[in-house]
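Hi team,

Filling in the usual template for the complex we talked about on Friday. All components are listed, including any nucleic acid strands or ligand strings, so the model treats them as one assembly.

SUBMITTER: L.P.
PURPOSE: interface mapping
COMPONENTS: two
RESIDUES: 226
SEQUENCES:
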Amino acid sequence: DVKVTQSSRYLVKRTGEKVFLECVQDMDHENMFWYRQDPGLGLRLIYFSYDVKMKEKGDIPEGYSVSREKKERFSLILESASTNQTSMYLCASSSLVTASYNEQFFGPGTRLTVL
Amino acid sequence: EDKVVQSPLSLVVHEGDTVTLNCSYEVTNFRSLLWYKQEKKAPTFLFMLTSSGIEKKSGRLSSILDKKELFSILNITATQTGDSAVYLCAVANFGNEKLTFGTGTRLTIIP
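RESULT (copied from the run log):
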């Protein structure tokens, strides 16, 4: 059974703190993605990675950075958390080589609240 | 800029009704359209459509794509309370591993 896991389901941080959100997949997928999901705005892509140490900006990268040191792990970093980064964060992965090449598998999400 | 628009934004129906959810898109080099169901947590995959006119079916759910008119519909027949969820539509382009998502349709089934 394919699995994408995220380090926390709920997280509360203070403004200005550095925040790390971790995502691990066990499917040997090449691509990994970070989204945030807000009411009325849907899923918006923050960053994605198509290989170890490779990253590309998505639609809303400002205020975020990412790290991919190993194929199975993709981290999202909020360098200095702000209240407007309160959101649901979803990680996803996909394979380049299977027939369902665009299908993304999602983790359960991390609901981050910044006070 | 790629765009995906879903309608309606929300829908409330009674158990047993049939519903149709809509997804229209504008993308530069269309490859596929995907439907996901999201209950309280991770979106789960329903269908991927790449060809016009070919219906994909899974139980009471079915979906079809019209590449000429740039839309897809998701039908759910004989709805059950377990169908209550947000349904997400996403599209992918060739040469690109990203998905562009719509804002979703929130479906509520009343017993």
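MY TAKE: The CA atoms of residues 6 and 36 of chain B lie 13 Å apart. The two ends of chain B are 41 Å apart (CA to CA).

Thanks, L.
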